[in-house]
Amino acid sequence: MKFLSNRLVVASEAIALPVVSLAVSLILFGLFVTAAGVDPFEAMALMYKGAFGSAFSIENTLQRAAPLILAALCTALPAQLGMVIIGGEGALVMGGLAAAAVALALPDSSSPLTVQIMMALGGMIMGGAWIGLCGALRHYRGVNETISSLLLTYIAIAILNHMVGGPMRDPASLNKPSSPPIGDANMIGTIPGMDVHWGLIFGIVFCIITYILMSRTTFGFAARIVGGNAKAAAISGLPVGQLLIITCLIGGAAAGLAGMVEIAAVHGAANEPLAAGYGYTGILVAFLARQNPMAIIPVAILLGGIDASGGLLQRRLDLPDASVLVLQGIIFVVILTSETLFGRFKIFTPREASDGSR
Amino acid sequence: MEVVDLGFWTVPLAVFAGAIRVSTPFLLVSLGECLTERSGRINLGLEGTLVMGAMSGYAISYLTGSPWLGVLVAGVVGSGFGLAHGIICNMPRVNDIALGIALMLFGTGLAFFLGKGFIQPKAPNLPAIPLGWWSDIPQIRAALEINVLFVLGVLLTPLLLFFLNRTRWGLMLRTVGDSEDAAHAAGISINRVRILATMAGGFLAGIGGSFLSLYYPGSWNEGLSSGQGITAVALVIFARWNPLYCFYASLLFGGAGALGPALQAVGFTQGYYLFNAAPYFLTLAIMIATSSSSGKFSGAPGELSVTR
C-alpha cells in the first residue's frame, strides 16, 4: 500500500507542476494580449470556444491533435534514452512524401485498402529511416542528434519542394506546385459517428503500444537504463547502439505515419502545406507530457485546441495568427523553467524515498 | 554603362558576391555563439534571436529613420534573449538544449506577432561600401558592394581570437567552459561568466538578424530566415570553436547558399530547391566527416552538453 501511495505522490507532482505551469503561461499570455490592447478574458473565452466550445470545434481540435500525437512520439521516445530529437517535422514531411509516392506508383486497379496500407508502410519506413539515420549518426559517428535532425528537416523540406515542383509535379497544378491527387477512393475516411479522421486512432494506438513497449518489456527496461546512464549500460553489456537506433526508428515511423495521415486524410496530394509545423509543436507536446507516451494524448488534444482557436482569435479580436505561436513559446519556456521545481516541494516527496531515490 | 555578358563567369562571380553577402549573418551569429559555447553553454535559441533582431531592427529603422539605431536595438533585444537563456539555464535541472528550442519558438512567434505591421512599409536600409570602383563591369561593381556588417564581422574575428587567447577575461571564459571545478577553484563566478557570454552571443545574433532585414534581402517578412541561426550554431561545432575557422566556414556557407540562385540566373534551373538546401547538406556532411564516435571533439569545451 505504501508503495502505491508513494507512486501516487510522485505522479501527482508530474501532473501538478505542468498544470500550474500552464496556468502561469496563460496569465503571462493574458498580460501579453493586454499589452497588445485586447481584453484578456475575452481572448481566453474565445480560445475556449474555438478549441472545445462546440461539436465542430472539438472535431477541429481532435483533427489537429492526430498529427501532433504522432509527431510528439518522435521526440518523446528517443528522449527516454537521453536524446533530444527535434526533427519530427522532417520525418513527417518525408513520410508524407513517401506515402504519396507509393499511392501514385501503385496501379490504378489496386483496392483502396491495399493502397492505404502500403501508404502507411511507406510513410513509416521513410520517417523511420529519416530519424533512424540521426540515431545511427549519433552512435557511429558521434554527430549530435539535435542538430543533425534539424538540418535533416531543412533538407526534407527542400526535397519535398523539389519533388512536387519537378519529378512528381502534377501539370494541372499551376501556381502552387503539387503532386497529382492520390484519388478520393484512397483517402482514409472518418471515424464512424464523428467528423474526425482515422489518424486520431492511429495516434492513440501508437501511444498505447509504445507505452507498453517502454514500460513493460525488456526492450523498454534496457532503453531506460541507457537513458539513465549510457556508459553504465554499455559496461553492463547492453547493445546501446542498437537500442538508440531502434528507438529512433520507431519515433521516426510515428512521425512518418503522421505525414501519411496528413496526405491521406487532409491534403489528398503531396504539396508544400505538408510542412505546416506539426513537427515543431510536437516537440512542445513531448516536453509538456514529460516524454510519457500516454500523457501525450491529452496534451496533444490541449495543444491541438490552442492551434484550432487561432483562427477565431484572428477573426474576432484582430490578433495576428502568430498569437498562437507566442502562447506556445511562453508555455514551452515556463514548462522547462518549472523543471527546476521538481523535488523542491515537501508535499510531493514520498516518505520512504528520503534518500533521494524515486 | 552597358551590362556585359559574362557568360559562365556570372556563376563564380555571383558565388563570390554571395559568399560575402549571404555569409554575413552566419559570420555574426557564429562568432557570438563561439563565445557562448566556449563558456560551456549552447544556445540553440539563436534562430529566434536572429528573427527577433531582424524584426526589431527593421521596426526601429522604419520608425526613427536610422538603420544604425535599428542595428543597435536589434543587438540589445538579442542580448535580452541571451540574458533570459543564461538566467533560466542557471537554474538546476534545466536542459540548455531544450530551453534553446523553446526560446527559438518563442522568439519567432514574438517576432511574427510584433512584426505584423512592418511587412508592408519600407524602412531605410544600411549603406554598402563600393569597393568595385576600379572596374567598368557593372556585375563586378555589384559583387564588390561590401556591406558594413560584413566588415564588422571581419574586424571582430581577430578581436575575438585575441580576446579568447590573450586576455584575462578570455582565460576566465575558457576556464569556465572547460572545467567547472577548475573555475570554482580559481574563484570565478561561473554563472556570471556564462550569462555575459550568452548575452554577447545574443547581441551578435540580433545584429546578424538586422542584416537580413536592413541589407539583404532588405525587408522584413516572416520567411526571412530559413534556419540561418541554427545552421550557424552547427557551424561553430565544425569550426572547432575557433573564431577564425568560423570566418572561413561562414564564407563557405555563403558561397554554397548563393550557388542555387546563381545557377538559376544563368538558366540552369534543375534542382533549384536542392541547391537551396546546400548549406544544410554541407553542414551535415562536414559534421559527419569531422565527428568521431570515440572520444570528444578536439578543441571542444569540456562542459559543453552537445559534445558529451
Describe the protein in words:
The complex is a heterodimer of chains A (358) and B (308). Chain A is an all-alpha fold and 358 residues long. Chain A is globular and about 65 Å long. Chain A has 13 helices and no strands. Chain B is mainly α and 308 residues long. Chain B has helices spanning 10-38, 46-64, 67-89, 96-114, 138-143, 148-166, 168-178, 180-185, 190-214, 228-238, 243-265, 272-276, 278-290, and strands at 128-130, 145-147. Chain B has 13 helices and two strands. In chain B, strands 1-2 form a two-stranded antiparallel ribbon. The interface between A and B is large, with 48 and 51 residues.
The DSSP helix count of chain A reads 13
* Average pLDDT of chain A: 91
Count of individual beta strands of chain B: 2
Total of helices of chain B? 13
Parts with pLDDT < 50 across at least 5 consecutive residues of chain B? none
Please state the average pLDDT score of chain B: 89
Structural class designation of chain B: mainly alpha
Radius of gyration of chain B: 20 Å
String of helices and strands of chain A: HHHHHHHHHHHHH
Distance between the termini of chain A: 16 Å
Question: What layout of secondary structure does this protein have?
Answer:
The complex is a heterodimer of chains A (about 350) and B (about 300).
Chain A: H1 2-35, H2 40-52, H3 55-79, H4 88-105, H5 112-141, H6 145-165, H7 199-216, H8 218-228, H9 230-235, H10 240-267, H11 278-288, H12 293-317, H13 323-338
Helix pairs in contact in A: 1-2, 1-13, 2-3, 2-12, 3-7, 3-10, 3-11, 3-12, 4-5, 4-6, 4-10, 4-11, 5-6, 5-10, 7-8, 7-10, 7-12, 8-10, 11-12, 11-13, 12-13
Chain B: H1 10-38, H2 46-64, H3 67-89, H4 96-114, E1 128-130, H5 138-143, E2 145-147, H6 148-166, H7 168-178, H8 180-185, H9 190-214, H10 228-238, H11 243-265, H12 272-276, H13 278-290
Antiparallel strand pairs in B: 1-2
